[in-house]
Amino acid sequence: MSRKKIFKLPYIGIEDSDDDCHFLQGMKAESSAIIKIQNPVLQYSADPDKYMAFHYSILQVIKIIGEGHMFQKLDIFSKEPYTTGMNSGEFLQRHYDEHFEGREHAVIYSYIVITVNGQRKLNSNENQKKQASLKEKVDKVIQVLDSSGFNPTLFQKKDIDTLVLQLLSMDFKRSNIALDNIKPDNTHIGMGDYAVKCLSLIDIDRIDLPEQVSPYVERNDNEAIKGFPVDTMSFLYGTPDYDTIVYNQIIEIPKQVAEIQRLQIKRNRHNGIPDPENDLAVEDIQQMLEDVAKNNQLVVNSHFSILVKAEHKNLKKAVNSIENALFLQGIIPSKNSYNQLELFRAALPGNGVELQNYDKYLTTSDAALTFLFKEALPVSEPAPKGFSIRFTDRQGIPLSIDPADHSRDIGRINNRNKFVLGPSGSGKSFFMNALVEQYMLYNMDVVIVDTGDSYSGISSYFNGKYITWKDDKPITMNPFIINKQEYNLEKKDFLVTLIGLVWKGADGQLSQVESDVISNVVSSYYESYFNGNDEDWIYNAPIKELEEHLQNNGSDIAPLFEEAKTSLLNNFSKYNWNNEDYYSVLGVNYGATAAEIKTSYRKLAKKYHPDKNGESSDDIQFHRISIAYQVLSDPNQKKGYDLARNIDKVSLYDDGLNLDQSDSVELSNIYHGILKRETISMAKHFNVQSLSFNTFYDFSLFMIPRIIDKEEISFDFKTFRYVLRKFYRGGEFQSILNEQADSSLFDERFIVFEIDNIKEHKILFPIVTLIIMDVFIQKMRNRHQQRKTLIIEEAWKAIASPLMAGYILYLYKTVRKHNGEAIVVTQELDDIVGNAIVKDSIINNSDTICLLDQTKFKDNYDAVSALLSINQVEKRKIFTINNLDNKENRPIFKEFYMRRGAIGEVYGAEVSFFQYLTYTTEKPEKLAVETYVRNFGSYPNGLEHFSKDLKRSGLSTSAFFTFINLIGCPVNESAFSFLKAYQSKFGHLAVTTLGKHLAKKEIDISQITGGSNQSA
User: Fold this and answer.
1) Long-range contact list for 761-764, CB < 8 A, 24+ apart?
2) Which class is 476-533+687-740 in CATH?
3) Sheet strands (E) in 9-51
4) Is residue 423 over pLDDT 50?
5) How confident is the model at residue 1 (pLDDT cuts 50, 70, 90)?
6) CB within 8 A of 109, min separation 6: which ones?
7) What InterPro entries does the annotation carry (predicted)?
8) Environment class of 186 (CB within 10 Å of its CB; exposed 0-12, middle 13-18, buried 19+)
9) What are phi and psi of 403, to 5 degrees?
10) How does 861-873 read in b/e, with b if 16+ C-beta sit within 10 Å?
C-alpha cells in the first residue's frame, strides 16, 4: 500500500499589519503581494498596438520591481455555467434567460504576484524595511497598471486565502470550495473525479522555441481572418472538454551584473573549444549580451507552464489539443514533466521559489514577456441610468450593453443615432427586432417607417399601432394644424420642405427665390390665421406696423401713398394753375413774404402795363404777372399752389418734410386712413378660418401673384398651381394632407407605418415618409418623460435628396435634444456609396454604426470604409462576423458589428425560440404563428401553446409550420390523432403527403380537425 503524505502549504501565513497591503509570507522567507487585474486587450480587438502596449507596460513593471524579485502572472480559464442573475417577469425576456441558462462558457481570472525573494533570517527592523520596500514597489506597479488599463485591485487577507484555495482545488466556479485528495504520479495529478496535467513549455535540455517571437501572432487558419492578430496563447480558448486551465507565467530577475559576468565566462569557455555546437552557443550568448547592452534589457529566468484540469476521460483530449497548438507555433513542451507536483505547487501565488533550475530558462526580459497572456473576455458594461440591452459575446453568452447613456457619459459617442447596414439574409431584421423588443422594456416610444412587413410580429406582441397604406385607406396627416406656441422656425422650415417636395419631387430642388417665396407665404398664412379674426389691432396700429403687415402679405404700399397725395390735392381742384412757376414769373424766391411779392408785382406791372409803356408794353407778360400775383397774394390759393408745387417731391420715406407742417400732418392722416382701409380689406378678402393644405393652397394662389408683381421676380406660378392641385380638394390625393391623423397616435408607445405599397410611387413615397417623420417630431416634443426612437428602414431613400438635406439635419439635431435617437436601416451598398446626403446628413450625425455580415461587399469595401471612416483595425473585426468557429451547440444566429465612436465590437444576435417566432419575417412561419396568437388571444398564450404542440407533434419546426398552415387552426386532439396515423404510414413525408391529399381534395380539413378549430 502506498504511503500517504500530507500536502504542506508553502506559506507560514499572511502579514496584515499594514491595512493597505497584505503580504503572503512563504516558507523561504519570501513575501508576496497579489494584484487582481483585467487584461487590457479584449479578445478579437484586432489591434497589434494594444498587444505592444501591454508588453511595454509589463516591461515597465519588471524594471520597477528590479533585482531580487519575482514576477508571476496567473491567467485562469474557468468553464462555468451561465446564470442570468435576473428575474425578468417579461415573457420574451424570461424565455431569453431560459435559453442561455446553464450554458457553459469560459471566464478568465487574471492575477499578478510580486515576490521579494527570501534572504537570511532578518530581525524585526530589517523585516519592516523589506516590507516597506516591497510596498513601495507595489504602489508604483499599481500606478503603472492603473494608467495602462489593467484595473488593478490589491488583494487583502480574505481574497488571498480564497485564491490559494481555488488554486489548490483548481476550482473557480464554486463559492464554497471543497478540497479533494491530491494524488500525484508521473503523468498527472488526481483530484477525485478529475485529473490535472501540468505542461512545462520549456525542456531545458532541448529548448524548442520559435526563432522570432512577438507579443502577438497572426491567425491564418481562415481566409476571412487572415492576418488577424491574437495572443500567443489564444489557442487556450478552444481547448476541448476542460474544466479549468491555469497558465502560470514566472519571470525571476537575478542580480544583473553577476548574471552577465557568468554569461561572459560561459561564452569564453565555449569559445575556447572549437566546435559547431560551441560556436552556436557563443553566438547565442553574444547576441543576448548585445541586446542587453543596446536595448537596456534585463536578463531574466523564465518559467511557463499550463495546468489543465478535466475529467479523467477528457484529459488526454484537452492536453493533446494544447500540445498540437503549441507545436504549430514552434513550441514543443517538455516531455520530461515527471515532476507534476512541483509544477503544480509552482503555480501557487509566490511559490515560484520552489522551481528547480531545470524548469527555468535564461533569456531577455523582452523575449520572456512575449509569452505572457494579454487578453480578456468582454464583460457587461455599466448602466448607471438603468438602460441596457443584451446581445451575446463571441462564445454565446449574453452581455449587457449601454449604447445610449454610459457611452455618452464616457465620451465614446455624442449622440444616440444609429446607421445600420446589412445585405439581405444577414440577420438585419432579427437584429432590429431584438433591439426594438428591448427598447420597449423601457420608457421608450418607438416609431418605425417600414417597407417590408418586418415588425408586424413584435408590434402585435406589444399591442402596438400597425398602420398599413391602402389605396382605399391611405395614411393621412394634416401637418398644417399647429397652435401659436408650436409655430416656430423649425416648423416653418418643415412646411417649406414639404411644399417643395410636393411641387418638385424628392429629386428636385428649390431655388433661393422659390424657397423665399414659399417661406413668405407660410409666414403670412399663419399670421392671417392667428390674427385674422381680430381687426381691432388695425385701428390702433401705427403707420409703420400697417406698412409692414401689408408688405409681408405681398402688397405694394407705394401706390397707396400716391393715392394719399392725390387725395390731398383734390381739396384744391377748383383752382387752375396751369403748371406755371408763379414765383419765377414775379422774380421772387419761394418763401418770399407778402410785401416782397407785392413790391415785385408793382415793379413788373409798371414795366409791362400796356397803358403806360406804349409800344414797349407786353400784354401776354402783363397777364402772366397779374395771374401770378392773384394766386400768390391770396393766402388760400397760395397754400394750394405751394402744396401742388411740392407734393411731387414728397416721397414715401421722407415723412412730408417738403410740406408745411399742417399739410404734412394732413397727408399723414390721409395716408394712415388708406393703410387701415387696405388692411381691413385684405383681412376681409382672405381670412384663414382653418388650417389644412386646402386653405394653404387657396392662400398661396392669392399671395404668390402679389409677391411676384411687387418684387418683380421670376416664379413658375402656373406649374406650382397645377402640381399642388393634386393634393387640393377634389384632387387625386386630396385626403393625404387634409385629413388629420388619429390623435391617439401621439400617446401610442409603439407605432409602425408600413408603406411598402407605395415605395415605388415617386410622388407619395417621399411625402408620406416626411409627414411620418413630422409625427415623430411632434411626439418627441410633447412626450417629455419618454425616450424616443425613430427607425426608418428602406424608406430613407425617399428623403435622401438635396431638397431634404436641411430637414434631415434638423431632425438629427432635434432628436438629440429630446432624449431620442434616429436609426436608418439599409441593405443596398449602391444606395449609400457616392450619396453625399447619406454621408453629410445621416452618417456624419450617427455616432453608432451597426454592420451585419459584409462578405457580399468585400470586393468593394474600400468605398464602404471611406464612407464610414473604417480603419484597418476595425475592418479586421468586421470580417470576422460569422467567420469564427463558435457555432457548436448553438442554434442558428447571426453576428453584427457595433461601432460606438471610433471603436467597435462584434456581438451575436442569438435569440430564444419564442423570440424567433415573434420576429420571423418568413410568410409561412408568420401565418402559422398568427393562427395560434389569434386563437389564444395573445402572443404569450399563443407561443406557449405553439411550442407545446410542436414538441408533442414530433415534427420538425418547418414541417409543423406547414401542417398548421394546411389545417388553418391550432392542433387539437383530432388533428394529433390524424397526424400520428399519417406519421405511422408515411414517416417523415407525412406532412408533404397530407398536403398533396388536401390539394387533390382526397380528404377534407374537417376530417383532420374533427370540425373544430380549438387546440387540444
Assistant:
1) 762/505, 762/506, 763/505, 763/726, 763/733, 764/733, 764/736
2) mainly alpha
3) 11-15, 23-26, 31-37, 41-42
4) yes
5) very low
6) 36, 74, 75, 76, 78, 172
7) CagE_TrbE_VirB_cntrl_dom, DnaJ_domain, DnaJ_domain_CS, F-pilin_assembly_TraC, J_dom_sf, P-loop_NTPase, P-loop_TraG
8) exposed
9) -85, 0
10) beebbebbebeeb
Q: Return the pLDDT at 927.
A: 97
Q: Are 14 and 23 in contact (CB under 8 A)?
A: yes
Residue 81 · residue 908 · CB < 8 Å: no
Question: pLDDT averaged over the chain?
Answer: 88
Pick the CATH number of 389-469+748-763+781-913 from 3.40.50.360, 3.10.20.30, 3.30.1330.30, 3.40.50.300: 3.40.50.300
Domain extents for the chain?
11-376, 389-469+748-763+781-913, 476-533+687-740, 558-682, 922-1009
pLDDT of residue 656: 53
222 versus 231: the higher-pLDDT residue is: 231
Question: Which tens digits make up the pLDDT trace of 938-948?
Answer: 999 999 999 99
CA distances from 128 to 17, 134, 514, 520 (A): 11, 10, 87, 86
Q: Cβ(695)–Cβ(689) under 8 Å?
A: yes
Q: What is the pLDDT of residues 493-524, one digit of tens each?
A: 989 999 999 999 988 899 999 999 999 999 98
pLDDT > 60? residue 762: yes
Contact partners, residue 726, CB within 8 Å, separation at least 6: 732, 733, 763
Q: How far apart are CA 405 and CA 900, in angstroms?
A: 12
pLDDT tens digits, one per residue of 814-853? 898 889 999 999 988 777 887 788 888 889 999 999 999 9
**Do 482 and 767 touch, CB atoms closer than 8 A?**
no
Q: Which amino acid makes up residue 534?
A: D
Phi, psi of 185 (to 5 degrees): -140, -165
